[in-house]
Design a protein that fits this description.
Layout: H1 6-21, H2 26-33, H3 37-49, E1 53-55, E2 62-64, H4 76-96, E3 99-107, E4 110-116, H5 120-123, H6 140-147, H7 151-164, H8 167-171, H9 176-186, E5 189-190, E6 206-215, E7 218-228, H10 234-259
Antiparallel strand pairs: 1-2, 3-4, 3-7, 5-6, 6-7
C-alpha cells in the first residue's frame, strides 16, 4: 500500500474542522484533531501564508481565507485587507489602549467588519463584531467610508440605502450629505450619540471615531478606534490619537495598493 503524506493529511484535517465549524480556536483544533498545539501552529501558519486561512485578531480564531478553493472563503479584497492590516491594527490598539475595528467596503455604500482587536476585559465593549455590517449613517466606520466615495457612487448608494435601511436610519438620510461634508472637513467620522448597534448584547455604550482607508485614492474600507463612552470624550480621543489613526490608515492603504498591483 502506498504510504500517505502525513503532513498533508494533517493539514487537510485542520481545514475540514475549520470549514465544518466556521471558526476554530487553537484549543478547539487540538481537541478535535488530537494534534499537539505546536504542530497545529505550524500547520495554521503555513495555511495562513498561502491565504487558505485567516487568523482573527479579536479572538485568535481561524477561519477560511479567500485562497481556499471553496465558495465559503472570504472575498479576495477582504482577505487582502485583513492580511496587510493585521500588524498595523494590533500596534494601533497597543499604542492607544483602545479597540480597533477594520472594515472593508462591500458595495452599495456599505462596509463589513473584517477584523477587530476588541477584547471585553480590556475595552469593555462588545467584541464579537467580525462579519457585522455597521450602519452607514450612524456608525463611525460607515460614515467615514461613505464620505470618500466618488460623488456618483455615493449618490447611487444613498438611493439604494433609502430603500433598504431600517426606518430610523432612513429618517436620518436627508441630513447625511451635510454630515459627510463636515466629516471630510475635520478628517474623521464619529459614532452617533446613543447609537447602540451591536453593543446591545452586552457591554457598555461605545464611542468611536473612524477614518477611511484609500488605496491610490480609491476607497477600500475604514478603520476606527472604539472605547466605552463614559471612559473618554470624543474630543479627548481625537486630540490624543487622531493623527496616529490617520497615519495607520494611510500605511494600510499604501500596503494594500502595493500588493494589489
Amino acid at each position: 500500500m502506498l504510504k500517505l503524506n502525513r503532513s498533508i493529511d494533517r493539514s487537510l484535517t485542520v481545514l475540514e474542522e475549520i470549514q465544518s465549524n466556521g471558526t476554530c480556536s487553537l484549543a478547539l483544533l487540538a481537541e478535535k484533531t488530537g494534534l499537539p498545539k505546536p504542530t497545529l501552529m505550524r500547520i495554521c501558519a503555513t495555511l495562513e501564508n498561502r491565504r487558505w486561512l485567516i487568523r482573527r485578531n479579536s479572538d485568535g480564531c481561524y477561519q477560511l481565507g479567500s485562497a481556499f478553493p471553496n465558495i465559503g472563503g472570504m472575498p479576495e479584497q477582504m482577505d487582502r485587507l485583513v492580511m496587510v492590516a493585521k500588524e498595523s491594527i494590533i500596534r494601533l490598539s497597543t499604542q492607544t489602549g483602545l479597540g480597533v475595528d477594520l472594515a472593508v467596503g462591500i458595495g452599495g455604500g456599505r462596509t463589513e467588519i473584517a477584523d477587530s482587536t476588541r477584547a471585553f476585559r480590556r475595552h469593555g465593549v462588545y467584541p464579537e463584531v467580525i462579519g457585522y455590517r455597521p450602519s452607514p449613517v450612524f456608525s463611525a466606520l460607515g460614515l467615514s467610508f461613505l464620505a470618500v466615495l466618488p460623488a456618483k457612487d455615493r449618490a447611487k448608494a444613498l438611493q439604494v440605502l433609502a430603500e433598504k435601511l431600517p426606518r430610523e436610519e432612513r429618517a436620518s438620510l436627508p441630513g447625511v450629505q451635510k454630515l459627510l461634508e463636515r466629516n471630510l472637513k475635520r478628517g474623521y467620522a464619529v459614532r452617533a450619540d446613543g447609537h447602540w448597534g451591536r453593543a446591545v448584547d452586552y457591554g457598555a455604550l461605545p464611542s468611536a471615531i473612524a477614518v477611511p482607508i484609500l488605496a491610490n485614492t480609491h476607497p477600500i474600507g475604514a478603520i476606527n478606534l472604539v472605547w466605552k463612552a463614559d471612559h473618554a470624550t470624543v474630543d479627548a480621543v481625537v486630540n490624543k490619537h487622531l493623527l496616529l489613526l490617520q497615519k495607520t490608515a494611510a500605511a494600510i492603504g499604501q500596503n494594500y495598493a502595493e500588493i494589489a498591483r
